[in-house]
Structure formats: C-alpha cells, structure tokens
Amino acid sequence: MPVSSPYRLVDIDHALHTILAHSPLLPVESVSLAAALGRVLAADVAAPVNVPPFPAAAKDGYAVIAADTSRRRQVLGEQMAGRVGDLTVVPGAAVQITTGAAIPPGADAVIMVEQTTPQGDWVEIESAVAAGNEIRPVGEDIAAGEALLPAGATLGPAEIGLLAAVGLAQAPVYRRPRVAILSTGDELREPGEALLPGQIYDSNRFSLAAAVAQAGGAPAPVGIAIDSSAALGQALLAALADHDALLTSGGVSMGKLDLLKPILEAHGQVHFGRVMMKPGKPVTFATVQGKPIFALPGFPVSALVSFELFVRPALRQMQGDRGWRRPRLQVTLAHDLEHDAHRTEYQRAAIYVEAGRFLARSTGHQGSGRLLSMVGANALLELPPGSGHLSAGSVVSALLLQAIGD
Ligand code: AMP
Ligand code: MG
Q: What is the pTM of this model?
C-alpha cells in the first residue's frame, strides 16, 4: 500500500472560508494620525466642525460690498489669512485680503487682485461683482455633522488629511495582527552564517515577515525550530503566548520529519491539512487557544503563494478590512502554457497592456523552490484543472498582486 495522508484534500474556497471563520477581529486602539497610514478605521467618523469654519476669501484681492458702485475705493487696511483685525468695510471702501483670510464685517464679496489697479491708499475696481463672489461659505468643503468616513475604511493620504482637517488628532483603528513567524527544519541556517554540508539558508522567515508587514500585520520572527516534536511544541506555545497568530513554514508534507500536523492536533484543532492546489498542497490550518495557526509548506514559492491566498485575507479581516480581495482580471496568454491537469495551479506571471488588452507572460520555470519565479510577477494566473495545456491567445483569470507597468 502506498503511503497516503490522513488529511482530506479540501478545495481552495472551502479552505479560505474555514480560515476566515476562525480569524477574529482584533481589539480597537487609538493611533495618532502620523501612525495611521494603512490602518483600518473602527468607527464611523462625522465632522465635528465646519470647513472652512468662517466665510473665507477664495482669492487674493479686496473685500468689498458687492452693491457698491464706486469705481475707486479707499483701502482701509489689510486682513491676512490667520489674522482677524477690527476693520469694517463701508461703501466707498475696501480691505485688502489674502486667500484663506476671514471676510471682514461689512463685506459680502471679494474681487480678485487681477481685476484691480492699486493707487496708493486707493484701489480702482475694474468690474462689478455679485454678492458672495470669491467667498467660500462656512462648511463649503465639509459641513459640521457630515459623514466623513465609514468604519472599515482603510486610511490613506486623503482619509488622514480629512481627519486632520476637522481637527481630529487620533483615529480609532483595529489593532494590527501580531504574527509570530517560525521556520522549521534542521537544514536551515541564518543568512550571513557559513553553510555546512546539507544546509541551506532560511529564506521563508524573511519573505513571510515582509509579506505580513505588507498585509498590515506586525511580523515577529521567532527563529528556527529544529525537527523535533519537543522543540516544535515548545516553540509553538511560546510563540502563541504574546501573538495573535502563528505562521510556520516547513514540516507539513509527507516526510519522516514533517512533524507539525500531529503537534497541532495535540495542542488544538487542525481544520484542514491539505488543499487541492498547486503549489501549496500541504498547507495546514489549525487553531490553538483560539488563535489561528497557518502552517505553510516549506518550499519558498509554496509558502508565499499560500500566504497570498490564505494568510493575507485572514490578516486583513483581523484588522477590520472587508475589502481584502485582489482584483481579478481576464488576461490573454502571450504564449503556450503547460499546467497541472488535476489541481488549480497558480502560476506567476507578468501582466502588461498591449493593443488595449491585458496580456500575460510567464515568469519562467515555475518550480516551488524557485523564488525567482515570483520576482517580476505582478499576478497569479488561476489555471483550473483541464487538459494541462493552454495555447497562446487563451483567456484565463489572474489575481492582480501589484500595479501593471508598461
Ligand atoms: P519541508 O516541507 O519541511 O519538507 O520543506 C520542503 C522544502 O522546503 C525543503 O527542501 C526545505 O529544505 C525547504 N525549506 C523549508 N523551510 C525553508 C525555509 N525557511 N527557507 C528556505 N527553504 C525552506
Ligand atoms: Mg522540513
């Protein structure tokens, strides 16, 4: 009898839904605006004040009375942005004003400087203006009480600017998931050390830490665990103590020292242990002490592809983001492609635009260990099972990971 895994092969959607059902929303914290970029808002925000809070000049010029017909007006003085004097505009007079300054009492219009000719203490007005001309009324940009941002919004430059514009110095956001990252394997060494026979450098801990940070999480690399049940069990419990989730790589396939699944079973619940996909078939998901544990395969590409499909959505959801889905594009293959006939295969590709169409070019040899196949890739082609061969010109679906260049 050939050796077979005790774990049922689940499909990709089932795996994702299982993960999302066990990835709890994190508590809310308050952060300063300087630390708010990329965070997800935890409450609706309405404007506490009007912007502008006072009628403000929209142009540099003179504050005047619109109904005043005198061609020459006496300039009573100036009112600059941020300074409010005690000047009142009366018929036959004007007050010089700069953009953003409060309109002085008496005035009901601003005439821009380009339509005036200054003559000492007097100014000549070239043309009549209507009441309200070049005045930004109270609340023109934002009205007090107006809904500004909904809970769930990801804070980018405009959102952060809006919060500042209405005087809010802090934003309520969901905490970032603190994710422990553990590499497993006797063969792994730290970059910078010399390799002994049979050893390789640990790359997953670094690629996965970067991926966690890009997904808005706080990566906490906790080292390399050797292939021993005791070491793995200890590392697992230690990592869980002060993190929201654990990400491991290696030790989940069918080798003699792939020890992780039984350890996860012993400490918690394994929800699935294999997924019908390529690469990433041995990806395993468990919960221990109510916290999600993503046990990713060891091969560097398998680890990153399964991170993209399963871990990133979970980390986004934990920090309150409901819009975590990647855009899906229909793309045309620029050349023939071989793919797995039985499992959905995610191939790394560069999408580009040619003659108004999205074309896809493979990044080359798609081996699970060949991290270079992810370099220069801005998309994962989703190739469902089939004949195993796709001809140039076939249209396939692609998950867009990064911007499309020229
Ligand atoms: P495993 O699933 O532990 O059998 O690992 C599968 C393959 O991935 C083996 O060739 C490992 O040497 C390799 N591998 C496991 N962990 C890492 C890692 N952290 N960095 C680079 N390669 C790894
Ligand atoms: Mg291993």
A: 0.95
